[in-house]
Design brief:
With 753 residues, the protein is an alpha+beta fold. The strands form 8 sheets. The chain has a 5-stranded mixed sheet with strand order 1-28-29-30-2, with no helix packed on it. Strands 13, 14, 15, 16 and 17 form a 5-stranded antiparallel sheet that branches. The protein starts with a helix and ends with a helix. The relative contact order is 0.09.
């Protein structure tokens, strides 16, 4: 029977298919579900499948297990001594929840093998480096990365949002909870502004409103969802009006990079106010925000380096590890040319380095001038003399980090003849090499001026933007699965889903399928130049907050989207939607309900046998319902336990990451201390050598002094002897001795007495 279950034809699968055939068909559908399921669902499916195939988990030591293996082992152990048949039923039940009506499209083993081969081929072709544990395996429960800020607790203001639906100020959208932000207190309408999240605050700075640049700054408290304006402290110089800049946070500090400025001579007092617009290098400012988030003071960061990027706007600036990586943009010089060079600014040393110089002549591989278009991979590539692949010069694109040494770039706008792009490129910061990336799946429409965030270290979610072929605000949202190298099929957008629901038959309404719903719908207000910030917690909660934009009018809307745990799976319909569909179905069947009722009455009067059959059927139905409720209860219990396990695992991983960072810092301090000790030892040895040489020289000098003293004493003795001889000679002359004598000096020399 087990072998037969694996070879069932798809046409024979239905809700009434008996076990274990239904289970084996569900396992094939489960392999498709797992590609887009949440970590919790993957672990549950693995545990139930293992329990149904191999029985209870064998107890073993968890010491040395990798994160993924440990999570799988603990989830399987939690099932205890669950029976094989019960594990099969719970597995099928979980597949029913994740993919309603899955039996209508069960893939064959050949289809699954072919799709797995395609996934492996895409993974082999992907320029992204593997991430995860030391064995470079992409674990389901990857530790928090540097792609975004991970908060220890989810902000209270975002916790009330309904998952899977956009919420906008002042009204409910898609059944979600409205964001309680007073429109009168929100910042003025704008686009091409800067936005970032630091802690539990979201900051908005500058931007454009029509032909006027703005110089204000505002902060949104994510706990209370209340706006407040940031003022310049007394005596400090205000921020010049600016637009097209980028706002980033690093270790709690806020930086403003690039952009177009109006005036602002305070940055360099010796220059006039109009000179700043012709500044040769890109501006980097650092903000000083007071503890109560009421004032903000901007200071020019003293950047160094052999060279620096030229002043520009519309570039991308992405935090990659401890560096801000800048790519592209529109040069602020006289020619207003578009750029495709890449630079990195080390945040701690504030030193620029050129990662890639770009190319000056954008051409495609054939050597002909590029005329743009939607074919990103043949039209939006520049080749240098060494045939190196380089993205075309562009601005108003988006970029994100992958690990600590790769940058991913998407879309943007080129020169007037190039239009907008839909391409994806990857820059390796270690080798300074570009690579064109062709993810599988439905490629989003070309766009520029869009916004994007990375959630859960995996999905790159894109909203907004515009191009010449589509009306502003009509471009659909998109999501790129960075691990699977695939654009996610998000399903129908909000309006299309509503029409599909209205056209669905009564039988389909019973299943309440979410296949026609959109996993990441387009926000109600969507345009160019809007900002997007992501807020994530260590427990896995994630929300996207969008602000402003231009869709024919300059906007000031705040919109929030809380990602469901099962993202990118589509969320279930809201309770209000379910109630409305049930009321429609009841109204449609009210006119035909009398005939079945009369038939039931006539059958009831047919005799005791009919009553007995009815009671038996009712008993069987009640028993089946009770068993189903028990299984559902067990399923909910298992999901709850695994959710807690997931939270514990994420907390442990967060603590592990913090301890690893602390250990790394300690190792660096120890290495620095060892280096200082070695340098001190070398200096001490040199001092000792010099002291020994000085001592030897001193001893030699002492010997010379002693020798000189001996010579001095001998000379003194001779002088004394000479003086005595002189005195003696003087006494002999007085005696007038007539005997001839030798000279006294000769006698002295000859030693005569």
């Amino acid at each position: 029977p087990l072998a037969a279950g694996r070879t069932l034809a798809m046409a024979s699968i239905s809700p009434a298919t008996p076990y274990p055939d239904k289970y084996h068909a569900a396992t094939r559908a489960g392999r498709v579900v797992e590609r887009t399921a949440s970590d919790e669902t993957k672990l549950l499916l693995y545990a139930l499948r293992s329990q149904a195939t191999s029985g209870p988990c064998v107890i073993q030591s968890k010491w040395g297990m990798e994160n993924e293996a440990r999570a799988k082992y603990e989830t399987w152990c939690n099932l205890g001594k669950m029976e094989t048949f019960e594990a099969m039923r719970l597995y099928v039940k979980l597949i029913d929840e994740e993919r309603p009506e899955w039996w209508k499209s069960v893939p064959s083993e050949a289809d699954l093998a072919r799709e797995d081969a395609e996934v492996e081929a895409r993974s082999a072709r992907s320029p992204l480096k593997p991430r995860g544990n030391k064995s470079h395996h992409r674990a389901w429960l990857a530790p928090p990365s540097r792609l975004g800020s991970i908060l220890s607790e989810y902000p209270a203001g975002l916790a009330a949002l309904a998952p899977g639906r956009w919420a906008t100020p002042g009204h409910r959208h898609g059944g979600g909870t409205a964001v309680s932000v007073a429109v009168s207190e929100s910042p003025p309408a704008r686009y091409q502004h800067g936005a970032c999240v630091a802690g539990t605050k979201m900051f908005i700075v500058g931007g454009s409103r029509g032909s006027r640049f703005l110089a204000d700054a505002h902060v949104l408290d994510l706990k209370t969802l209340e706006w407040s304006a940031l003022h310049t402290p007394s005596g400090a110089d205000p921020l010049p009006a600016c637009a097209g800049h980028r706002l980033l946070s690093h270790e709690g500090e806020i930086y403003l990079v690039g952009g177009a400025f109006v005036g602002g001579g305070w940055l360099e007092p010796k220059r006039s106010l109009s000179d700043l617009r012709d500044r040769e290098s890109v501006v980097v400012l650092r903000a000083d925000v007071d503890a109560n988030a009421r004032t903000i003071e901007w200071k020019l960061a003293p950047c160094t380096g052999p060279d620096a990027p030229s002043a520009r706007r519309g570039m991308s600036v992405t935090r990659v590890g401890d560096e801000f990586v800048l790519f592209g943009g529109e040069d602020r010089g006289r020619d207003r040319s578009y750029k495709n060079d890449a630079w990195a600014l080390h945040v701690k040393t504030l030193r620029w380095r050129c990662v890639h110089a770009g190319s000056s002549r954008p051409r495609d591989g054939s050597g002909k001038k590029n005329k743009g278009g939607n074919n990103a991979y043949s039209a939006d590539v520049t080749t240098t003399q060494s045939e190196e692949v380089v993205p075309r010069a562009r601005c108003e694109h988006v970029a994100c980090a992958w690990g600590d040494d790769q940058l991913i770039v998407h879309g943007g706008a080129g020169a007037s003849s190039a239009g907008c792009f839909d391409d994806v490129f990857v820059l390796d910061l270690a080798t300074s090499k570009w690579a064109a990336w062709r993810p599988a799946g439905p490629t989003p429409a070309p766009r520029a001026g869009h916004a994007a965030v990375v959630i859960r270290d995996r999905y790159w979610c894109v909203i907004g933007g515009g191009n010449d072929a589509t009306s502003v605000g009509e471009l659909r949202s998109a999501a790129l699965d960075l691990r699977e190298s695939r654009w996610v099929d998000l399903g129908a957008d909000a309006d299309a889903a509503d029409e599909s629901d209205a056209a669905t038959s009564d039988d389909a309404d019973e299943s309440d399928s979410s296949s026609s719903r959109c996993a990441f719908p387009t926000p109600a207000v969507c345009g160019e130049g809007m900002s997007a910030c992501v807020v994530e917690s260590a427990s896995g909660d994630a929300a996207l907050i969008a602000f402003g934009g231009y869709d024919g009018a300059t906007r000031r809307d705040v919109q929030a989207f809380r990602f469901p745990d099962a993202f990118p799976a589509a969320p279930p319909p809201s309770p209000a939607k379910k109630k409305e569909k049930k009321e429609k179905k009841a109204a449609g069947t009210a006119g035909t309900s009398s005939a079945p009722l009369e038939r039931a009455t006539s059958l009831d009067s047919g005799g005791a046998k009919t009553q007995s059959d009815s009671s038996t059927s009712a008993s069987t139905s009640a028993s089946t319902s009770s068993a189903t409720d028990a299984l559902a209860s067990d399923n909910l219990r298992l999901r709850g336990e695994n959710a807690r396990l997931r939270d514990d695992a994420r907390r442990v991983l967060a603590q592990h990451t913090a301890l690893a960072n602390a250990l790394e810092q300690t190792e660096r301090d120890r290495a620095r201390a060892v280096a200082d000790r070695d340098a001190t030892a070398k200096s001490l040895a040199a001092s000792r050598t010099a002291a020994a040489a000085a001592t030897a020289a001193l001893d030699e000098a002492r010997g010379e002094i002693a020798a000189a003293a001996g010579e001095r004493d001998a000379l003194r003795a001779r002088v004394e002897a000479l003086e005595r001889r002189v005195r003696d000679l003087g006494g002999e002359e007085e005696e007038e001795d007539k005997t001839p004598k030798k000279g006294w000096f000769a006698s002295l020399l000859l030693g005569d007495d």
